[in-house]
Amino acid sequence: MKIVQSAGVSELGRQAGKEAADLIRNAISRSGQANIILATGASQFHTLGQLIAEEGIDWGKVVMFHLDEYIGLPESSPASFRKYLKERFIEKVPAMKAVYLINGEADPEEECARLNAIIEQHPIDVALVGIGENGHLAFNDPPADFDTGFPYIIVELDKACREQQFNEGWFATVEDVPRRAISMSVKQICRSEYIICSVPDERKAVAVRDCLEKPVSNQHPASILQDHPGCTCFLDEHSASLLGKN
């Protein structure tokens, strides 16, 4: 894993978005197609914005998956990740070859089976991810399942995760945050050839320290990224503020 520290959140997003764009262009040049994973949430605003602005990407040769979605939340909700990706990314780039979004309103077991069959046919070239305040990777809250080989799984959201979603303004109350979600598994994320991890903001500083400097542990799920040779973690001065201070 490589760590890149930027002076601020906009510069973090610029660097992460440019790196992701280069990797996507390279995958298309090498294989004729790029299979990518996109994340959502406040941490991705600037990274996705830069990726949209990048030139020279043949989006008609890109297949997109996304990381996670709440179970039972309608797409009309401001907190819907499908809504987020459609409005903030999909509608802002030329039509992609294929887009596979998680339908949180479908039967969860059937939806996991549907997506698992698809993604197993699409080795991932580039995954864009973040790190939660509790150290989660996608919605794999601690203690995360590092063992399951299924690409998409049903997970329970812990209190810290749900409080983060509320504090970021996605829900009116903590109780409104769904307690379950469909999430890409840790193993599936780590199957990606390259991972771009964008983590801005001081409220992520403890999680960044724990996940990047402590031993790999399912109590700090994103710590697994330490072992990924193709992962670059982009931090700003605030999220990196506790590194080297153990």
Structure description:
The protein has helices at 9-31, 45-53, 81-88, 108-119, 159-167, 186-190, 205-213; strands at residues 2-6, 34-38, 62-66, 68-70, 98-100, 126-129, 152-156, 180-184, 194-199, 231-236. The protein is of the alpha/beta class and 246 residues long. The protein has one domain: 3-Layer(aba) Sandwich (Rossmann fold). The strands form two sheets. The chain has a seven-stranded parallel sheet, with helices on one face. A three-stranded antiparallel sheet has the order 4-8-7. α1 (9-31) crosses α2. It starts with a strand and ends in a 10-residue tail after the last strand.
Blueprint of the fold:
Layout: E1 2-6, H1 9-31, E2 34-38, H2 45-53, E3 62-66, E4 68-70, H3 81-88, E5 98-100, H4 108-119, E6 126-129, E7 152-156, H5 159-167, E8 180-184, H6 186-190, E9 194-199, H7 205-213, E10 231-236
Parallel strand pairs: 1-10, 2-3, 2-6, 3-5, 6-9, 9-10
Antiparallel strand pairs: 4-8, 7-8
Helix pairs in contact: 1-2
Catalogue the unreliable spans.
none
- Using the alpha-carbon principal axes, give the shape: globular
Number of domains: 1
Q: How many runs of DSSP E, i.e. beta strands? A: 10
CATH architecture name: 3-Layer(aba) Sandwich
End-to-end Cα distance, whole Å, is: 19 Å
Mean pLDDT: 96
Q: Report the β-strand fraction as a percent range.
A: 15-25%
User: Mind summarizing the main beta sheet?
Assistant: 7 strands, parallel
CATH topology: Rossmann fold
How much helix, percentage-wise, in residues?
25-40%
| Spatial strand order of the main sheet | 1-10-9-6-2-3-5
Would you state the CATH class? Alpha Beta
Tell me the structural class.
alpha/beta
Q: What is the helix/strand order? A: EHEHEEHEHEEHEHEHE
DSSP summary: helix tally: 7
